[in-house]
Design brief:
Layout (H helix, E strand, L loop, with lengths): L6 H4 L12 H9 L7 E4 L2 E4 L6 H21 L3 E5 L3 E2 L10 E5 L8 E2 L5 E2 L4 E3 L6 H4 L2 H9 L4
């Protein structure tokens, strides 16, 4: 029997760089995208990375930073580390940083884990390897991150 997509899926517009969306609309449209798609909502604007990730300028530093944070977590109570988590900062910002470190909310951390398993609130540390997406990472994304953490 021929499978046809549901009507609602047919009418979901794909995400495009520069789309201005609410977080709810961003999440609805992101869920309909192929799993290989990576997108973030920064200041209400969709940012999609089409850049290939190079070994020395992204992959290797990413793995070093991941090892450093995993070691930190192993020796520091109430900390958790995640690789590329979606972070719901506020209604117009939903970045997907390369790495995040959070302190458990029961131990005074400022993030919560949502019912659908997303981080909500600003993690104690967000890390980006900016070699492939420098214009986004060091521009708008850096500005909103500083504002959400009081300039730290």
């Amino acid at each position: 029997m021929l499978q046809t997509p549901t009507i609602s899926r047919l009418f979901i517009a794909p995400l495009e760089n520069g789309d201005q969306l609410s977080r709810d609309e961003f999440e609805r449209r992101y869920a309909a995208m192929p799993e290989t798609c990576k997108a973030e909502l920064i200041e209400g604007i969709v940012c999609m990375s089409a850049a290939a990730l190079r070994f020395k300028s992204h992959g290797q530093p990413h793995s070093f930073m991941n090892a450093w944070l995993a070691t930190y977590q192993a020796f520091t109570a109430f900390t958790m580390v995640a690789d590329a988590p979606t972070v719901r900062l506020d209604p117009i910002n939903e970045p997907q940083p390369d790495l995040a470190l959070v302190i458990d909310s029961d131990a005074g951390g400022q993030t919560q884990l949502s019912e659908d398993d997303y981080l909500e609130g600003a993690p104690e540390l967000l890390a980006e390897i900016a070699a492939s997406t420098v214009s986004i990472d060091l521009g708008t994304k850096k500005r909103f991150s500083q504002n959400s953490r009081g300039g730290r």
